[in-house]
Amino acid sequence: MPVVTVYGVLPSPFCRPVLMTAKAVGVDVEMKTTSPLTGDTHKPEYLEMNPRHNIPTMDDDGYILTESRAIMCYLVDKFGEDDDPLFPKDPQLRNRILERMLFDVGCLSQRCYDYYNREWIFGDGDLDESKLAPLTEAMGFLDKYLEDSSWVAGDNMTLADIGLCVTLIQLEVFGMDFEPYANVTRWYEACKTDVPGFDEINEEGVKIFKAIINK
């Protein structure tokens, strides 16, 4: 079985989708614990790989790649099946998946952390109530995407579902109510049973993350 090295930490909602994708395509991951909270990402050897000092970073036999969604796409392209349904070759399907992945990191996830901000997470501040309406709007977008399909980019589970379900896990940990979003609720329940590594990879990471925010 092929092996790649991933630098990051399990509590990170940006690392877990990479690990879930690796599991889906049958790649072993050597996880090298690298935490922004302890200064690991500012060490010279890490900055040489990733000047932006974020996580995750992947090393595949000397090929370095950063940004979680780029790593996910790479793993399927290199190690997945030919025309893998997680990220198929058809340009319309492929770019629909990319659209939803960019919605995740550029809209839903961003608005999640605008509202549930770093200061609140670490117990040093309050929620920014002015950011709640944009977050609920983004949840409405996701609910609309799921109106006529089982998965966020069509009838098959794709990389977009893997990334977005981890964002939903974070929102659930923070205490957001999904009841107003019937399509999201139905899809999220399907993710729990059908997305590779949903329990195995997220359980420990969420446990550690909860310990951080409950301090």
From TrEMBL:
<dbReference type="InterPro" id="IPR036249">
    <property type="entry name" value="Thioredoxin-like_sf"/>
</dbReference>
<dbReference type="Pfam" id="PF00043">
    <property type="entry name" value="GST_C"/>
</dbReference>
<comment type="subunit">
    <text>Homodimer.</text>
</comment>
<dbReference type="GO" id="GO:0004364">
    <property type="term" value="F:glutathione transferase activity"/>
</dbReference>
<dbReference type="Pfam" id="PF02798">
    <property type="entry name" value="GST_N"/>
</dbReference>
<dbReference type="InterPro" id="IPR010987">
    <property type="entry name" value="Glutathione-S-Trfase_C-like"/>
</dbReference>
<dbReference type="InterPro" id="IPR040079">
    <property type="entry name" value="Glutathione_S-Trfase"/>
</dbReference>
<dbReference type="InterPro" id="IPR036282">
    <property type="entry name" value="Glutathione-S-Trfase_C_sf"/>
</dbReference>
<dbReference type="InterPro" id="IPR004045">
    <property type="entry name" value="Glutathione_S-Trfase_N"/>
</dbReference>
<protein>
    <submittedName>
        <fullName>Glutathione S-transferase 1-like</fullName>
    </submittedName>
</protein>
<dbReference type="GO" id="GO:0006749">
    <property type="term" value="P:glutathione metabolic process"/>
</dbReference>
<comment type="similarity">
    <text>Belongs to the GST superfamily.</text>
</comment>
<feature type="domain" description="GST C-terminal">
    <location>
        <begin position="90"/>
        <end position="209"/>
    </location>
</feature>
<dbReference type="InterPro" id="IPR004046">
    <property type="entry name" value="GST_C"/>
</dbReference>
<feature type="domain" description="GST N-terminal">
    <location>
        <begin position="2"/>
        <end position="83"/>
    </location>
</feature>
